[in-house]
Amino acid sequence: xxxxxxxxxxxxxxGPAPVVILIEPQLAENIGMCARAMANFGLxxxxxxxxxxxxxxxxxxxxxxTAAASGATHILANARLFASAAEAIADLNHVLATxxxxxxxxxxxxxxxxxxxxxxxxxxxxxxxxxxxxxERIGLTNEEISLADAILTxxxxxxxxxxxxxxxxxxxxxxxFSTTGGQPPFRETTLSPPARxxxxxxxxxxxxxxxDICGFFPPGKKPVMTANLxxxxxxxxxxxxxxxxxRGVFKSLVEGPKKARLAARREEAGD
Amino acid sequence: xxxxxxxxxxxxxxGPAPVVILIEPQLAENIGMCARAMANFGLxxxxxxxxxxxxxxxxxxxxxxTAAASGATHILANARLFASAAEAIADLNHVLATxxxxxxxxxxxxxxxxxxxxxxxxxxxxxxxxxxxxxERIGLTNEEISLADAILTxxxxxxxxxxxxxxxxxxxxxxxFSTTGGQPPFRETTLSPPARxxxxxxxxxxxxxxxDICGFFPPGKKPVMTANLxxxxxxxxxxxxxxxxxRGVFKSLVEGPKKARLAARREEAGD
Lengths: 271, 271
Known about the structure:
The structure is a homodimer.
Chain A: E1 19-23, H1 28-40, E2 46-49, H2 63-68, H3 73-77, E3 80-82, H4 85-88, E4 94-98, E5 108-110, H5 112-124, E6 129-133, H6 142-145, E7 150-152, H7 165-179, H8 197-213, H9 222-234, H10 240-268
Parallel strand pairs in A: 1-2, 1-6, 2-3, 4-6, 4-7, 5-7
């Protein structure tokens, strides 16, 4: 969409992060898309519980998953396979279960933005944290949800709440990355410092003098019109370079016609 | 993943929101997935600039797009078709352009979380706002970006920055929805109010008395062990119902064996 923007020379974001546990994912392609979403946001540990179409034992790569992972193959290659949710979370200390539906369980319910600061604190304190994601169509069973400490749910349009598996992983990852200091890939280009006031004032003075020569100001209106014009241009909050560029623009408008007239005259004179 | 959770009885989130403008999307399926992501977060107006495989004139439905939209067909049916980015934004007041790469343009660069409060304010003030999303592989041209007021970019792992089109739309929609007060589909189940202190104290008293009878406390240790036990149980921050349930659990452990012994004796006696 936005060009890839991937810069292989920049270090990968690595470090302890929540484990993503996919319960009985039905399609290898969805597993791949989850891996891609994880890689986007610095999550690296994937666990699979009884994927419908199987998984190469001892970790490894699976065709449909690999294509959909768009290069996040390291995550697929290191994915670990388990027979049940309970086994997949046995070594973890804290577990969230994702669901879009109320289950009548007396658990704390959190959005990703609410949950991630707490998870980051636990992980910072050495805990191992995981997030359970259910089957594509039917989600987690109530029994699987009862294994978790709290529920993770997503703020979505109640009339259209269906997120696909990889999108749920994406939103969890996005909030994890944002919460833990993730930065956009670039910031404002600052080629030139903000303009000094004298550069701007000098531009104004030049412009207003030339407009005066051109007869731009009706009698008695110059003070008001000048103030309005300055208000408009001040709003640009220009850089030094931009103020100079704009002055050049005005100058060109003034001098260009003069030069053009001179050139035309010279041509007539047969120079 | 999380079961659908869609509740068609709840009103759709509607209202003025940013327009999503897709520039030369290559795959109808991606257009459908964008529509789905928009519906998830209450965005409803889609504009298409020269989709590679065409689009039914006068709005309408297109096969691959409809399947991928998972029911968000109203968005596809109302999508408007334009020949260029400039035409697609002509009636808007404020435009953001998404890109994952720095373009050397002197524009403000914002993440979705930074951008959405400003967009919400503009929209609240009656402005029409749009977000440009580029082609799947190569994004927006520099010329298209120069049409925008500011740049929208996503905080992603710099070593794996490639988001697909629908994921970019999803993240923008997610932040829009969160910023404008979007709520998760449900909150904690509160079947019972928090426990009254007397319920908890009465449970403690019962438990400690029974443990005393069982010889649980070594000589002289009762005060310390009782305090520890109360600390553990206080941490549960129980509801009234939970405190009663837990008392029932203790009682059953105490009385169950007695009842079982009585029943066994009766059976022996041939009752």
